[in-house]
Amino acid sequence: MASPSPGHAVRPAHDADDGPARELLTAAGLPLGGLGDSWRRWVVDGSAGLDGVVALERHTGVGRPVYLLRSLVVRPDTRATGVGTALMRAALAGADAHEGGRAAVALLTETAVGYFERFGFTATTREALPQALAGSAELSGACPSSAVAYWRAGAASS
Ligand SMILES: CC(C)(COP(=O)(O)OP(=O)(O)OC[C@H]1O[C@@H](n2cnc3c(N)ncnc32)[C@H](O)[C@@H]1OP(=O)(O)O)[C@@H](O)C(=O)NCCC(=O)NCCS
Predict the structure, then answer these.
(1) Residue 40: CB within 6 Å of ligand 1?
(2) How many angstroms separate the alpha carbon of residue 79 from the centre of ligand 1?
(3) pLDDT digits over 43-85, tens only?
(4) DSSP 3-state assignment of 154?
(5) Could you give the 3-state DSSP secondary structure of residue 34?
């Protein structure tokens, strides 16, 4: 796994980051639907704007809250230097801290299959994801049906 360098400082996103974040996501072909409703977003600053973005949606329903990790993108000329790893760790730590233990997190991806196992995710089927996620923009159409679903189970006590 790439080690995040000390230079990849992750911070919570501000309103002013919304436009640059959407530009990065659009350039990578990732869906924007529902992004504004996400629970929290994090960014890494770079010399030419944002170097990376990630967002978490938090869905509640029957049982424990479930998070949907989405909108992970790193500026192309900064990839493979640990920015994605730093963003993933920050997002998962944020969810875990909020739940007081390991949070349940799902994601869908077409473009980064094989990336998420290193963060404790396993590939699954979309149908196996919790019903609480069904109303999310990604599961209700923004992500193509060919996207691979990943799941990181939460702690029983979280
Ligand atoms: C996927 C992405 C976020 C990874 O970020 P990154 O900062 O380049 O990744 P890191 O530096 O943290 O990690 C590099 C490692 O991830 C692997 N990796 C990078 N991109 C990958 C991808 N698209 N698929 C699978 N593995 C990938 C590298 O091979 C490298 O592996 P190694 O550590 O075994 O050498 C970035 O490539 C990106 O923005 N891609 C386009 C958008 C995208 O696909 N987002 C995911 C949507 S769910």
Answers:
(1) no
(2) 7
(3) 999 998 999 999 999 999 888 999 999 999 999 999 999 999 9
(4) coil
(5) coil
